[in-house]
Amino acid sequence: MTIRDIETFFETWAPPWTAWERDVIGLQVGDHERRVRRVLVALDVTQEVVKEAIAKKADLIVSHHPLLFHPPSSITTGDELGRLLLTLAEKRMAVYSAHTNLDSVRGGVSFALAEALGLRGIEFLAPLKDTLVKIAVFVPSGHVDTIAGAMSKAGAGAIGKYDSCSFRTVGTGTFRGSEDSNPFLGQKGKLESVEETRVEMIAPRANISSILTAMKAVHPYEEVAYDVYPLQNTDPEHGMGAVGTLAKSATLRSFLKKIKATLRAEAVRYSGRLNRQVQRVAVCGGSGSDLLRDALATHADAFVTADVKYHAFHEAGDRLALIDPGHWETEHVILKPIAERLKRHARTTGEPLEVFTTNIRTNPTHFLS
Ligand SMILES: [Zn+2]
Q1: Domain range holding 53?
Q2: How far is the CA of 288 from the centre of ligand 1 (A)?
């Protein structure tokens, strides 16, 4: 398996267009065509993680947090980042990062957190909006399946667990070609009237140009008539945070204990009465307190996220228990699901690939008690 195969695997699961626009994701260090046999999955790329990757003879480190978030002005042994990059280059070890694109997908960071905490019926807390369009194209008979097929292949017509979704209506198209035209049907200079099918497909906004290119490549008309409509539908496949319910209602005290143990937290900051009941729980791995209002709107009893500011605890008040076990603590739960998916992918392709997850606690912060 090459690094490019691994990039394609991640891009299919967590498309780059779902990432925060100023994020830095993808292959950070390495050669796309190099073969990969051993992968180490980590939240952060630190000296200890690189040491572990060397000991495990890994060809690639897959990290959640990008190593090169702020591009360096020099790469020397004079600073930590330079030393890391030089070691990676010397060992021919690659680094691939899936960051905010892995926050916005099913099975991503927040879903992994929700599953780790035992939530059921997990859904997105804030589905993405304005990410979908409808493409309608007018097609002469005999070409409908080819054109719909090409559009599907380029990413149109995917709805949840279904692909190749389209709606087709037969109607009449009219046109008159100019003297310079070369019409596929009829004669130039003559008003023509032909049976056409309007093929409609939903598509991610980010894929519009590749879908139109694929459609035009197989469309027989010299001038293709098509419409692209923005949709206000929420995106069922992409969103921020997650929400679900505990199998049994628990007191906040026992839920906090469970969080502390499951997420390997040294301490947990929280607001709310310890004897309040918790069953519906919203979560967002990493810095998610911007979703507090979404958590309140879904009537969650608790919201688990990280990097929560003092004023957010005040804003939550008695309405829900706001819980901050820490940034590393709410995100390291994604490492095993990444490794499992990579292993499954390798098995289906029949390629040899060993995948390890680091056990190193890369959280630089501690509590003194
Ligand atoms: Zn993070």
Answers
A1: 3-98+333-357
A2: 10
